[in-house]
Amino acid sequence: MKTSVITIRDFVKGNKAYSLTTKKGKSTITEEYVQKVGRTYVTTGTGYSERRYENWDSEFLHEKVVYGESALLFKTKEDAEQYLEKCDLCVWLGNISVNKASSFSLEQLRRVKEILD
Predict the structure, then answer these.
(1) What is the Cα–Cα distance from 98 to 53, expressed in whole angstroms?
(2) Percent of the chain at pLDDT above 70?
(3) How many structural domains comprise the chain?
(4) What is the mean pLDDT of residues 88-116?
(5) DSSP H/E element including 44
(6) Does 15 map to a domain?
(7) Which of 103, 59, 61 is CA-nearest to residue 85?
(8) pLDDT at 2 over 80
């Protein structure tokens, strides 16, 4: 199952959007309002707190920054939460060693392979 890609066109001025930031390993989801939808960026916030997000060919838009960590912008809070869960599961899956995997039955391993292929 492939992840659905969102673009700038999926956002509407005045609607809520949700930014995901990660600092020192702690993730925070913040509700924001879309201020502008242009050809290149979606803008949230005003003045000093203004953020610009660009297409990223993924399930989120990526914040355009000069330095520091970029935030990710999602259409719904559920999308942001599911993205965090997906990341956690990817890390979990990547940490399964050969020794751990050998403790599963052949049938279990076949089912996992079938799901992931």
Answers:
(1) 40
(2) 98
(3) 1
(4) 89
(5) strand 42-44
(6) yes
(7) 59
(8) no
Q: Is residue 94 part of a domain?
A: yes
CA distance 45 to 35: 7
Q: Let me know the angle formed at the C-alpha of 80 by 77 and 84, rounded to the nearest 5 degrees.
A: 140
Pairing between β-strand 16-23 and β-strand 61-63 as defined by DSSP bridges = unpaired
Report field, pTM of the whole predicted structure over 0.90: no
Q: By three-state DSSP, how is residue 87 classified?
A: helix
User: First-to-last CA distance in the chain?
Assistant: 9
Q: What are the pLDDT digits (tens) for 59-97?
A: 999 999 999 899 999 999 999 999 999 999 888 888 888
Range(s) of the domain holding residue 81: 8-116
Residue 1's pLDDT is 53
Instruction: Please name the amino acid found at residue 44.
Output: T
What is the maximal distance between C-alpha atoms in the chain? 58
Is the pLDDT at 3 greater than 80, yes or no? no
Question: What is the C-alpha to C-alpha distance for residues 40 and 94, in angstroms, rounded to an integer?
Answer: 35
Q: What does the alpha-carbon distance between residue 83 and residue 71 come to, in Å, rounded to a whole number? A: 13
